[in-house]
């Protein structure tokens, strides 16, 4: 039976290294299956987070051969004869082996001004195209792979300066909802750190839900911020109103 060679990071916040495992390949095998084989046959204490094994819970995010991916959607045979290196997401603090602490994301989520609907006593009439635009953003499974790949979060002062692409998607879903009444451009410019994003599109390229993160969320949000803060007419009006 053909075998895959997996080099899996083992360790914790104090350090670690890759450990090599040989796993028999079965048809349709994904990297998460190979990690389960390792747990069952070699190291039962290998830590890996997963739930659905169907690409829907966003739990099994890892870095496979240097690219952030869902372990349950990454086929072992896609790598041919290459070794498969499996590492934890490096934008987040390591807990153990492949499991990282992603709780900073939930703290950010709680800060974002929530949906503020127009009068809820009146039945809403909404055009299909308006809902379709928002539906794209609502496909997010919170895998945080986009947060992991974002160089602003990796190289600068992380999430404290820029909320990251996942939260630009979340804010876009609120801002573009036809019945939302809040304006979040000041929040995006100041707390959200939207200006740090330089539209490299790395996040968009690897989103497992194929959300057009930069094209449909970040760029339109940047345009809204530019309209509100750098349009000279609006700037003058804000000054007059003392805002
Ligand atoms: S936007 Fe895409 S990559 Fe980012 S958390 Fe959501 S599903 Fe994952
Ligand atoms: S496009 Fe912006 S949010 Fe996406 S990875 Fe690049 S800098 Fe980060
Ligand atoms: S286990 Fe749920 S997305 Fe991979």
Defining traits:
243 residues, 2 domains, alpha+beta, Fumarate Reductase Iron-sulfur Protein, Chain B, domain 2, Ubiquitin-like (UB roll), five-stranded mixed sheet, 10 helices, two-stranded antiparallel sheet
Structure commentary:
- The chain has 243 residues and is α+β, with helices and mostly antiparallel strands.
- The protein folds into two domains: 3-100, Roll (Ubiquitin-like (UB roll)); 103-233, Alpha-helical ferredoxin (Fumarate Reductase Iron-sulfur Protein, Chain B, domain 2, Orthogonal Bundle).
- The protein has helices at residues 31-41, 103-111, 128-138, 145-149, 151-155, 165-175, 185-189, 202-206, 213-230, 232-241; strands at residues 3-12, 15-24, 61-64, 67-70, 84-87, 94-96, 99-100.
- A five-stranded mixed sheet has the order 2-1-5-3-4. Strands 6-7 form a two-stranded antiparallel ribbon.
- Strand 3 and strand 4 (67-70) form a beta hairpin.
- Helix 3 (128-138) packs antiparallel against helix 6 (165-175) and helix 6 (165-175) crosses helix 9 (213-230).
- The protein is elongated.
- The termini are far apart.
- The model has no long low-confidence stretch (mean pLDDT 94).
- One iron/sulfur cluster binds next to helix 5, helix 8 and helix 9.
